């Protein structure tokens, strides 16, 4: 097996000198690629995530096309909840929809744990990918407890998260029981991925930016820490933590146990480096919409991200959120070339 500890990605995650700034893109395997659409033709999202052949193919597509420094496992944050036995599906154009939302202590008590055997197809896909990727690291991921809880409580995507916050504020005991159950599911899912061979994990807290720092500290941080510290105790792999709109929470997200903090496009990386403890690398953070501008604009904005990233102990170049569906793949390929060619490294 190839030793990936000296890869640019893992060195950057440890804050060590790198040959170039490593680059990968959240949602790099997705609707922006015609080969992705072909691979998933006639298959539902969650069905695709449990087909090892599809997972391997879709995960490899951006590595072949872009030459990125990492692959990220093709999966979905709600997959382990579905695999545990929760009745949910991903509706096209809507997102995850839960048949029976979780609103009470009895609902929480009825939530099953995740049997690792239920996600064995994911482990099989990871093992296949590790063999194909060779010297390119594979990133595994899971959804953080707050974001998973929001889907379960709301019954689907939400902008205001009213029911979620009402449960948090109004029935704290039930909230913590729910978040703890989801932390255990996320941790079990990540352990399956790590044991199968992923080299890095990322915990996505997509909706944490809707919270104040006080609420995050009280209701969310302990459960994200359960996941991140659980992985630390399980294996020596870097742990990236990312959320959208979390500029005011970056230090707290680091306190949850992350090795690397993902930063969305709203906070410049040099400012983000001041908000996290010394020695914590950052990941990000080109605005995903910027790639629709003329190339000279894209290039200058990417150079600005690279310059600001030098303020941190380490930097992994990425977008500030996922690749948008109408993104031109050729622009992302040029972006990888630029980052590799123009990185400022120690």
Tell me the count of domains. Answer: 1
Give unreliable regions as ranges.
none
- Structural class, by secondary structure, is alpha/beta
Determine the mean pLDDT: 96
Helices, by number, come to: 15
**What is the CATH T-level topology?**
TIM Barrel
End-to-end Cα distance = 29 Å
CATH class: Alpha Beta
As a percent range, the share of helical residues equals 40-55%
The major β-sheet equals: 7 strands, parallel
Shape annotation = globular
Describe the structure.
This protein has 346 residues and is of the alpha/beta class. The protein is 48% helix and 12% strand. It has one domain: TIM Barrel, CATH 3.20.20.210. The protein has helices at 8-13, 34-39, 45-49, 52-66, 79-84, 105-109, 120-133, 145-154, 162-170, 172-196, 213-234, 250-255, 269-275, 295-309, 329-342, and strands at residues 71-72, 88-91, 95-98, 138-143, 200-205, 239-243, 260-262, 282-286, 315-319. Strands 1-4-5-6-7-8-9 form a 7-stranded parallel sheet. The chain has a two-stranded antiparallel sheet with strand order 2-3. The two termini are 29 Å apart. 52% of the residues are buried.
Question: Quick recap of the structure?
Answer:
The protein is 48% helix and 12% strand. By secondary structure, it is of the alpha/beta class.
